[in-house]
Design brief:
- The complex is a heterodimer of chains A (about 270) and B (about 350).
- Chain A is an alpha+beta fold.
- Helix content of chain A is about 20%, strand content about 35%.
- Chain A has five helices and 13 strands.
- Among the domains of chain B are: about 80 residues, no CATH class; about 80 residues, no CATH class.
- By secondary structure, chain B is mainly α.
- Chain B starts with a helix and ends in a 41-residue tail after the last helix.
- The N terminus of chain B is likely disordered.
- Classes of the chains: A alpha+beta (about 270), B mainly alpha (about 350).
- The interface between A and B is large, with 75 and 59 residues.
- Chain A: It holds the Pfam family Brix.
Chain lengths: ~270, ~350
């Protein structure tokens, strides 16, 4: 336990639990997201960020007060806020004439900004505009990516895809209830835009074991225009993706199963 | 078998039952652990750039989702409480971590020693039988202090101890020393784990020590020998440390018979026999000889303007000069012009 190695020990049990929650672990917590309102915003972009928070609940927090933060100029403000809320994903919204309906998505590694992408939101349709039943909170969505730009490693969209998966995949789970696969998020890359659509899955009977899939759009729906990016270098990204040795599945040597299913060992 | 075939026939002819087959020129890259599907196929740009691409997008999504669901349904599943659960494989798509992987805890000094010697930890019982109290007493934790307090009401003075020594104070001092030692060792272990260099003597490291710090460090180093620095060589121009090892000392309460009386009398003498900085008798006699001087107009105001405060002050070497004394000399009874009292900073 990392707590015992602190110079100043926590005075309360609650404080101790809070510190244990925040420390580095082998298997990490679900990534928390922090959405921040910038110093100047529009209705559209605020509704957009509120919908994103709803999508990501309970792992998202929205700071509704205006913050005078410009991430592309000074990352310190963002880093300190994310450190405070123990979140490794962040989103900042703003609106001005030069960059209308601006959404900056980013992620943190080791209390420092790893990647940051500035997207312009167009054709935004909020959750309220789709008048139908929605999906339950905390549902793990299926993620679909289509389009050439997502496939080419040299383009920005390759890392953007990684960022989107990180943002929207939800918790890491081992078992999934088959009836609970209800939500689909689709990202389509066209030229310099990414079209985001969100659907509810309705499983219908088919002649076979697997059901027939029907989709119903529930929103939100928006088109992202890629503006500025600040992506981590290949080395930094590689070191951030490094998994600890302890998590590697150990290969059991000299043991095999024969045709009848009985385990055979070699001495 | 026959029943099944009938069913299949029905399926083909029945328009309400649809096929779950999806044909795509290129296979999707599926990562079931993340419920992620990447479609490398080309898109119909004409549809996408049209006014309403949503229809095309929905059909595209439906096809890809169908393929994903097909794959999920091939996984092994179990039934738990009327609910069908599929076991997802480990996610393959590489995502960066939040924080770097934790480094293993380094062993403390005792732990390494114990490992070398083969000393294993032995579990101690919480309750210990105590003969004094004739009861089971906790060794640590809840109600241990209360149990100690029961035995503490009297402490024996051991045969070789000073009868005037406070045993209770001695006990509590010993405990605070043990606690402090434990804390020091804990911090040392942390410093060792983090590879921070900590000096063993009482001086903390500074990057650029000044003259006094260097001097102190040198003296500490000299003392840190087996004979406490008695036989250390001295440098030719080395100055001994001022107040080295001296703690603030007070006179004992009960002294020899005449000592305290003498001390007090000395204090009185020093106070009463204080010689003024200026020779008052000389000045007075000179003044009487010379007679009164012409009173200077507005002498008080003028001196105020010049900003003289309080009485005439002189340095050690000032002698009373002719004419430099004002009539009435020290401004007895007159409040000197004082500067505004300084307001307390809040």
């Amino acid at each position: 336990m990392g707590i015992i190695q602190r110079v100043v020990k926590p005075k309360t049990r609650r404080g101790k639990r809070a510190l244990i929650k925040r420390e580095a672990k082998l298997i990490e917590n679900t990534k928390q997201c922090l959405f921040i309102r910038g110093s100047r915003t529009s209705n559209v972009i605020v509704n957009c960020v509120k919908d994103l928070t709803k999508l990501k609940k309970p792992h998202a927090v929205f700071l509704n007060r205006k913050h005078d933060i410009l991430p592309f100029e000074a990352v310190n403000a963002v880093e300190s806020l994310t450190r405070k809320y123990d979140s490794s994903l962040f989103g900042l919204v703003s609106h001005n004439k030069k960059r209308p309906n601006n959404l900056i998505l980013g992620r943190i590694f080791d209390q420092q900004v790893l990647d940051m992408v500035e997207l312009g939101v167009e054709n935004f349709k909020s959750l309220d505009e789709f008048k139908n039943a929605k999906v339950a909170l905390g549902n793990k969505p299926c993620l679909l990516f289509s389009g050439e730009p997502f496939q080419t490693p040299s383009s920005d969209f390759y890392r953007l895809k990684n960022l989107f998966v990180d943002f929207f995949r939800g918790e890491e789970i081992v078992n999934i209830r088959l009836q609970g696969i209800e939500h689909v998020l689709q990202f389509v890359a066209v030229e310099n835009k990414v079209l985001l659509r969100s659907y509810r899955i309705i499983l219908k009977k088919s002649g076979e074991k697997t059901p027939y899939v029907e989709l119903e759009e529930i929103g939100p729906s928006m088109d992202f225009v890629l503006r500025r990016t600040k992506l981590a270098s290949a080395d930094l990204f590689k070191s951030a993706c490094k998994q600890p040795k302890e998590l590697k599945v150990k290969k059991v040597k000299n043991v095999s199963k024969d045709v009848f299913g009985s385990t055979m060992g070699r001495v | 078998m026959q029943a099944k075939m009938i069913f299949e026939e029905d399926a083909e002819s029945d328009p309400t039952i649809r096929s779950t087959k999806v044909d795509k020129p290129l296979e999707l890259e599926l990562d079931i652990g993340n419920l992620l599907a990447s479609d490398p196929n080309e898109l119909n740009l004409k549809h996408l750039k049209s006014k309403n691409p949503n229809g095309y997008l929905q059909s595209l999504a439906r096809d890809n989702t169908q393929l994903l669901i097909n794959q999920i349904w091939t996984l092994p599943f179990e039934r738990v409480d009327d609910v069908v659960i599929a076991k997802l494989p480990k996610p393959e798509y590489l995502l960066p971590r939040e924080k770097p992987a934790p480094k293993g805890k380094q062993m403390t000094k005792w732990e390494t020693y114990a490992k070398d010697k083969g000393i294993t930890k032995r579990k101690k019982t919480k309750l210990v039988w105590d003969d004094l109290v004739k009861d089971w007493v906790p060794r640590y934790g809840y109600k241990r202090a209360a149990a100690e307090h029961e035995k503490d009401w009297v402490l024996e003075v051991p045969a070789n101890a000073d009868p005037f020594e406070d045993q209770f104070e001695k006990k509590s001092e010993a405990k605070s020393e043990r606690v402090a030692k434990n804390e020091l060792q804990r911090l040392k272990n942390i410093a060792r784990a983090r590879k921070v260099v900590v000096p063993s003597a009482g001086l903390t490291l500074t990057e650029r020590p000044d003259k006094t710090e260097l001097n102190q460090a040198m003296h500490v180093a000299k003392k840190a020998t087996a004979s406490l620095g008695k036989f250390q060589q001295k440098l030719p121009r080395e100055k001994p440390l001022k107040n080295a090892g001296k703690k603030r000392k007070f006179e004992p309460l009960v002294q020899e018979s005449g000592k305290e009386k003498n001390m007090n009398l000395n204090v009185l003498d020093n106070v009463m026999n204080k010689k003024p900085l200026m020779a008052t008798e000389k000045l007075v006699s000179r003044g009487l000889r010379e007679g009164p001087k012409e009173p200077v107009e507005n002498s008080f105001e003028e001196s105020e303007k010049r900003g003289r405060r309080g009485g005439m002050k002189g340095t050690k070497n000032t002698k009373a000069k002719k004419g430099s004394v004002r009539k009435g000399g020290f401004k007895k009874g007159r409040a000197a012009p004082r500067s505004k009292p300084k307001k307390k900073r809040q």
